[in-house]
Amino acid sequence: MAFIDYYKILGITKSASDKDIKSAYRKLARKYHPDLNPDNKEAELRFKEINEANEVLSDPENRKKYDKYGKDWKHGGEYEKAQQQQSRQQSHYQSSQRGQQEFYENDYSDFFESMFGGQGRSSNQGHFQKFKGQDYHSELHLDLKEVYTSNAKILTINNKNIRLTIPAGVENGQIIKISGKGGKGLNGGPNGDLYITFVIGNQTQFKRDGKNLYSDIDLDLYTSLLGGEITVDTFDGKVKLKIAPETLNGTKVKLKGKGFPVYKKEGEFGDLIFTYHIKIPTNLSEKEKELFKELQKIR
Predict the structure, then answer these.
(1) Is residue 221 one of the residues assigned to a domain?
(2) Which pLDDT does position 242 carry in this prediction?
(3) Position 241 in a domain
(4) What is the pLDDT of residue 187?
(5) Which positions ≥6 away from 96 have C-beta within 8 Å?
(6) In this structure, are strands 136-143 and 151-157 parallel, antiparallel, or unpaired?
(7) Among residues 83, 109, 127, which one ends one of the domains?
(8) DSSP letter string over the chain?
(9) What is the pTM of this model?
(10) Residue 151 belongs to domain with CATH number
(11) CB 207 within 8 A of CB 151
C-alpha cells in the first residue's frame, strides 16, 4: 500500500496541535462537502481523503502509530503486542534448548509477515492471536431541520458506502456507534466499530434547548394593548395565536407539543415557547402625536 501523507492532505505540519487539526478539517470539509459540490467527482474524492486524514490524526493513539509506522500504522498495535509476546516467551523459555527458541522466533516471524504482506507458514496460523479491527471516527454535519424527522443518509467511510437511518431528535455533539463498520479484524478477529459525532447547525429562527424550542415574536403596541390575533411560524407549519388585551413586554406563551421530537421516543415532542417583544412605534405623524397626548392627559 502506498504511503498517504495525511498532514499534507489537511495542509498542516507534523507539529500541528489537536486544535489545528480540527480547524483544518472543518475548513476543508465545508469547502469540499458533496452538498456544496454536486456532481463534482474531484471534490468528492478530496472529501473522502480529508475525512480519512481526520480519522487518523484526530485520534492521539492512531496519530502516534501513523507517525511511527507510516503506511503500516494500522498494524502498529499488533506489532507491538507481538514484540511483547515474543519477549515474554523468550524470558519464560530462556533455559530451553536452542531449537525450541528458534521455534518461537520463527513463529513470531510468520506472525509479523502475515500482518505486513509476507507469506508466512500456514502451519503456524493456529498460534496467531485474534485482534479487533480499528475503530473509525467521523463527523456528520446536518442542519436542525434535517433532524426534526427521521431520515436516511449514505456515508462514505474509507471508500465504503454505509446507509444510516438517523432518528429524529439527535442532539448536537451526540455520538452513536455502528458496530462492525470499522476496520477489518486481524486473524479472524471482529471488525472495529464506527463512531459518528453529529454536528448540527441551525439556520432557523428557533433556538433549541433539549426537546424545547424558543422563539421571539415582535408585537406592535396597539395589538399588545387592545388584543387581537396573529399568525406565527412553528417548525411544522403556521398557527394562529390569540393576544390578550394589555399583554406586557416579555410575556411568554407555551405551545404544548410543538417543540422538538424526543430522541427514539416515537410521537413525543417538547414544547414551543414564544416570548413577546413589544415594538414602540416610531416616525409618528402629527395626528398620532395628538392622539397620544390625549391619552396621556386621560391617564
Answers:
(1) yes
(2) 96
(3) yes
(4) 83
(5) none
(6) unpaired
(7) 127
(8) -----HHHHHT--TT--HHHHHHHHHHHHHHH-TTTSTT-HHHHHHHHHHHHHHHHHTSHHHHHHHHHHGGGGGGHHHHHHHHHHHHHHHHHTTTS-HHHHHHHHHHHHHHHHHHTT----GGGGGGPPPBPPPPEEEEEEEEGGGGSS-EEEEEEETTEEEEEEE-TTPPTT-EEEETT-SSPPBTTPPP--EEEEEEEE--SSPEEETTEEEEEEEEEHHHHHH-EEEEEEETTEEEEEEEPTTPPTT-EEEETT-SPBPTT-TT-B--EEEEEEEEPP-S--HHHHHHHHHHHHH-
(9) 0.56
(10) 2.60.260.20
(11) no
Bridge-partner residues for 143, per DSSP?
201
In a domain, 279, yes or no: yes
Range of the domain at 160: 136-201
| Statement to judge: residues 100 and 190 lie in one domain | no
Averages of pLDDT over runs of 10 residues in the chain (299 residues) are: 79 91 90 84 87 89 83 66 58 47 43 44 53 87 93 82 89 90 87 91 94 96 94 93 96 96 93 96 92 89
Q: Where is the domain boundary, 78, 104, 127?
A: 127
Cell of 180: 462492525
Residue 202 CA, chain-centre distance (Å), reads 15
pLDDT on residue 184: 86
